Amino acid sequence: MEKFNAFERDIDFAFWKEICENQGELRHYRRGEYFEHSGENLKNCGWIKSGGFKHALTDSEGNLKTVGFVFRNAVLANYSVIMSGDPMPTSIIALEDSDVMVVPTKVIREYLICNSELNLRFVQSLFSQAYGTILDGYYYSPLKRYRQLVERFPRILELVPLGEIASYLNISRRQLHRFRETPNSQAD
């Protein structure tokens, strides 16, 4: 399956997968089950064998907002929390029944600390993706961002409920429904 996040395309995660498969424990998460809660310390990291997860936060009005996705054959974690030990800024919640090879966070942290070049690539890649996302939010219309998302990751419409996609794009469900009915030939 194609990689959803830019940092997944920038970093070779073979080391992460190997650590999880050699030292990890297989855990099953049901749809809607939390891998980790916002405000708690990240005790475990993982490698997603099957399924997918969302990163979500509760906004100032008490609404759960989706801020990211991660799917099969990818890491399940939060890099900055792994390295800082700070509480999770988001919750990680299963989008569907999922299997994850789980290891204690400290195992991944120690590996990254011992591999400074890889650690620096992580920081650079994550910063670049975050900054690009911010700029795209200003540069592209919501319709264009929706089209780019579907073009970049066509299976998103099969894997993720529309409400989650709308939340991720920071638009209303109604607006997303209008976009889906808009022919691609119309101008953005």
Explain this structure.
The protein is an alpha+beta fold. The protein contains nine helices and eight strands. The strands form two sheets. Strands 1-8-3-6 form a four-stranded antiparallel β-sheet. Helix 8 (162-169) packs across helix 9. The chain is globular, with a radius of gyration of 17 Å.
What's a quick, concise take on this entry?
The chain is built from nine helices and eight strands. It has helices at 6-10, 14-23, 79-84, 105-114, 116-139, 142-152, 156-159, 162-169, 173-181; strands spanning 25-29, 34-36, 44-50, 52-58, 64-71, 75-76, 91-94, 98-104.
Produce the secondary structure layout.
Layout: H1 6-10, H2 14-23, E1 25-29, E2 34-36, E3 44-50, E4 52-58, E5 64-71, E6 75-76, H3 79-84, E7 91-94, E8 98-104, H4 105-114, H5 116-139, H6 142-152, H7 156-159, H8 162-169, H9 173-181
Antiparallel strand pairs: 1-8, 2-7, 3-6, 3-8, 4-5, 4-7
Helix pairs in contact: 8-9
Query: H/E series, N to C?
Result: HHEEEEEEHEEHHHHHH
Helix percent reads 40-55%
The number of helices is: 9
Mean of all residue-level pLDDT scores: 87
Q: Structural class of the helices, strands and pairings?
A: alpha+beta
In terms of per-residue confidence, which ranges show pLDDT below 50 for 5 or more consecutive residues?
Answer: none
Biggest beta sheet summary: 4 strands, antiparallel
Rg measurement, Å:
17 Å
Ends apart, CA distance between termini? 29 Å
